[in-house]
Design a protein that fits this description.
This protein is an all-alpha fold. It is built from eleven helices and no strands. Among the domains are: 79 residues, NADH-ubiquinone/plastoquinone oxidoreductase chain 6, subunit NuoJ (Four Helix Bundle (Hemerythrin (Met), subunit A), Up-down Bundle), CATH 1.20.120.1200; 40 residues, no CATH class. 74% of the residues lie in helices and 0% in strands. Helix 1 runs antiparallel to helix 2 and helix 2 packs antiparallel against helix 3. The chain is elongated and about 115 Å long.
Length: 219
Amino acid sequence: MDVKTGFFYFFSIVLLFAAFRVITSRNPVYAVLYLVLAFFQAAAIWLLLKAEFLAITLVLVYVGAVMVLFLFVVMMLDIKVDGLREGFWKHFPLAAVVGVVIALEMAAVLMGGFRATDEPQSAAALGQAGIELSNTRELGKILYSQYVYPLQIAGAILLVAMIAAIALTLRQRKDSKQLSPSSQVRVKAKDRMVVLKMDSTKVAALDEAASAVNAEKKE
């Protein structure tokens, strides 16, 4: 067994352990952290398979953005773990059956479609000819030539989703205080300050009470 195979088995074992802990951890924060570890191990396996672009994308997008957002949301929300676990054993048989079916389907796909371990002939021929082959460059060519229309459609859908999310968060709530910038700009000094006429000197009520007590003592 060479070094590459050893790293593959090491990353695979850690990946399986992290994925198992994601679904068995009682603390949601620990589950998110184990999922981040699983993403890192998957990125390392992709690096071994010479898929550098996918590995970097997985780390930047999922670990650097999505999972950090999930972690902040989980830490900010007061999640009742005991309430979420109610009825777990009631639905466990159905969940186990679905999990076994998914595992068998994935095993059938992996055993039937990924048996070839040799490098593709085109890449091997280019390597022998001294031409450097870049996965990122080839992926970009295919993405912006053959799949340019699906890419534009996906971008439009994501744009609509982003605008809808912003519109939902900008709804006016009755229990929150909001300021109107236009009203603040149009306000005048007389609307904010009122000048009242008062006497320059006035006897305090405490002094009057003290003088009344002294007069009673003298009597």
